């Protein structure tokens, strides 16, 4: 009973193997053509990627790109043809591991010489647009930072106005005699007016910068708007990149102008000069007591002047200490470099570019599994049990031919050839 089950199992295995062999023969009829189509498609996209790297559009560059793409197509076709034939056929573990490692290194080589160029052809323009968009963001941040510093510096005008107003109020008090006790426009009044006039000049200078700051910021925003349009408008990306570069140069100039329009360094220097450069007026009191009162008031004014100057200097230094806008420089980039730099944003394109080159690896594994199944189905039976009718007929014909040849050989051995007749020699005349 066990032998019958075993015989039945063997028969099932043979039929299973024969069925798989039929499928494999049918698939082999077009596998080479399909592999050739994949190789040619990869070569075409490789050609497009290579042309994006070449600056020259002459005949030599054209033939160089064609030669490279043909070499890639041939290499892919030969490489996967070898593996589709050899890897399923080997049986030892060592041979399989060796071919698998070879396939791994070959796949990496294909990615290095073809897949990244395929990705450049598939998503190169979009990647360059991504680069332009990132650059616009960087320039926008730099412009806003430069404008923020300039606006903060313009805010120092209020601090200067408060100090100026305080000195004007003190001068009015001095004019009425409420400060030093001497009414009129004496030495203390002239000192207070001297500093209030200096601060008024500084205040007017700061105010004159405000329209320039507003105009520069408006111009920068207009340039940014044009740069954003260049990132998304239709047309060749190479032409748009050139226009984008021109706008980037203009915007860099505007950002530099905004940085120069900051009045914080000017206010800081003016605050230092406010207390350092004081022209003391001549005391004009009629009596020694009045002159002593004026001198005491001037000392108090100088002390107050130093305090106000220190307050202004600290306010200006806080603006100067603000981190400056980052140095943003637009660097043109090729489509191939762009898809590498922004690879995380183009995963589908990278997947498609690699899949078109490495899809035959799946076919190799399928064939390896199928051939292993065929060998497993035939492993428990002999060769004579797996022969098809056609193979059996051919074998019988071969046996018949061999028997006929052997029969002719025996017949020839049984009937030796007759000796040729020898003619008698003729007598000499």
Automatic annotation (TrEMBL):
It comes from the Bacteria. The keyword Membrane applies. The chain crosses the membrane at residues 30-48, 60-83, 95-117, 350-370. Keywords: Membrane, Transmembrane, Transmembrane helix. This is Uncharacterized protein. Residues 407-429 are annotated as: Disordered. It comes from Pseudooctadecabacter jejudonensis.
């Amino acid at each position: 009973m066990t032998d019958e089950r075993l015989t039945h199992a063997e028969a099932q295995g043979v039929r299973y193997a024969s069925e798989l062999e039929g499928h494999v023969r049918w698939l082999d009829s077009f596998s080479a053509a399909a592999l050739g189509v994949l190789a040619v498609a990869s070569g075409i996209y490789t050609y497009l990627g290579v042309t994006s790297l070449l600056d020259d559009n002459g005949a030599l560059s054209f033939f160089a790109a064609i030669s490279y793409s043909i070499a890639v197509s041939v290499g892919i076709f030969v490489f996967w043809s070898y593996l589709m034939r050899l890897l399923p056929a080997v049986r030892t573990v060592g041979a399989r591991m060796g071919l698998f490692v070879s396939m791994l290194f070959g796949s990496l080589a294909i990615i290095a010489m073809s897949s990244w160029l395929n990705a450049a052809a598939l998503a190169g323009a979009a990647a360059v647009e991504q680069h332009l968009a990132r650059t616009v963001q960087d320039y926008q941040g730099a412009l806003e930072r430069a404008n923020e510093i300039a606006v903060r510096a313009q805010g120092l005008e209020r601090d200067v106005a408060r100090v100026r107003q305080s000195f004007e109020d003190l001068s009015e008090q001095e004019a009425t005699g409420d400060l030093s006790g001497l009414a009129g426009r004496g030495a203390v009044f002239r000192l207070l007016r001297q500093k209030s006039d200096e601060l008024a000049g500084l205040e007017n200078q700061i105010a004159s910068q405000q329209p320039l700051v507003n105009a520069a910021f408006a111009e920068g925003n207009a340039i940014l708007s044009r740069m954003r349009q260049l990132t998304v408008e239709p047309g060749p990306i190479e032409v748009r990149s050139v226009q984008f570069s021109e706008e980037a140069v203009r915007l860099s100039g505007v950002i530099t102008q905004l940085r120069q329009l900051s009045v914080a360094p000017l206010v800081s220097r003016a605050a230092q000069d406010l207390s350092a450069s004081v022209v003391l007026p001549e005391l004009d009191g009629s009596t020694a007591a009045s002159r002593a009162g004026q001198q005491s008031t001037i000392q108090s004014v100088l002390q107050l002047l130093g305090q106000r100057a220190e307050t202004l200097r600290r306010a200006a230094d806080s603006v100067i200490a603000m981190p400056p806008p980052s140095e943003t420089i637009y660097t043109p980039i090729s489509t191939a470099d762009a898809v590498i730099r922004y690879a995380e944003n183009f995963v589908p394109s990278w997947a498609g570019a690699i899949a078109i080159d490495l899809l035959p690896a799946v076919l190799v594994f399928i064939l390896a599994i199928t051939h292993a199944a065929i060998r497993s189905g035939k492993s428990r039976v002999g060769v004579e049990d797996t022969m098809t009718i056609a193979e059996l007929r051919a074998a019988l014909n071969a046996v018949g031919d061999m028997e006929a040849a052997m029969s002719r050989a025996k017949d020839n051995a049984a009937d030796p050839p007759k000796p040729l007749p020898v003619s008698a020699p003729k007598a000499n005349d």
